[in-house]
Structures are given as C-alpha cells and as structure tokens.
Amino acid sequence: MEINHQQVMKKLIFIFVLMCLFSCNEYIDKPKNLIDKTKMSEIIADLAINDQVIYLYPGTNLESGTRFILKSHQVKNEDFIASYRYYIVKQKMKGIVDDAQEIIIKKDPKSEKKIKGDIKVENLELPKNKVERQ
C-alpha cells in the first residue's frame, strides 16, 4: 500500500478550502432594533451640534444633552450603540456621516465652509529659518 503525497495534498487543500468557505460568517449580527440610516444621520447631526455647545458654554453637561437627543428621537441608548457598532463594522458609517453633514448644512448654511474644509487661513506666516543659506 503506497501513499501518493500529491493525492493527500490535494485532499487536504480541498478540505481546507471547504472549511474556509463554511466558516465565513459576518463579524456582527444585525441588531434587533437597528436604527435606519436616515434616523441615524439625524441623530449624528444633532450629536455633532450638541458637541459644539460645549465650546460655547464651557461646563455644560454633554451627557445630559446626549440623553435628551436620544430621547427626542425615541431611541434607547443600547439601540444607538448597537446600531453604531453595526454600521461601523459594515463600513456604512461614511454615508451616514455624509448625510449628517448635509443635515447640519441645511440647519446652518454658514457651517458648510467649515464642514467641507474650505476655510483658508489668512495671514499665515511660515516660520523663518534661523540659519539662512548664503
């Protein structure tokens, strides 16, 4: 009884490929109470605006503002966190954030330059070299 190493290797490779195909699952399961993308964009936009309030009014409680936003959208904290994780893992968060930026621009058109990064810094002076070349 002679063992053919090529046949053994082919069978092992075939078994390995089958195991890889059957073991491929999604990294994360879809949450029961998944927040739809449009609502998630609205919440993200409101949270971004709430975050800016801290700069205007130092000492403001960011956590209470976050709770208020989630309550006003009728979303539980756990559902928001699970949906956020799901969209991050599925790589769908960029579209949601882009929609949130558009919502912010509709609420405050002046914010478009800051969001899009078109603000030019005036009177920008580059540091001068201490040793000038001759």
From TrEMBL:
<protein>
    <submittedName>
        <fullName>DUF4296 domain-containing protein</fullName>
    </submittedName>
</protein>
<feature type="domain" description="DUF4296">
    <location>
        <begin position="31"/>
        <end position="106"/>
    </location>
</feature>
<keyword id="KW-0472">Membrane</keyword>
<dbReference type="Pfam" id="PF14129">
    <property type="entry name" value="DUF4296"/>
</dbReference>
<feature type="transmembrane region" description="Helical">
    <location>
        <begin position="12"/>
        <end position="28"/>
    </location>
</feature>
<dbReference type="InterPro" id="IPR025381">
    <property type="entry name" value="DUF4296"/>
</dbReference>
<keyword id="KW-0812">Transmembrane</keyword>
<keyword id="KW-1133">Transmembrane helix</keyword>
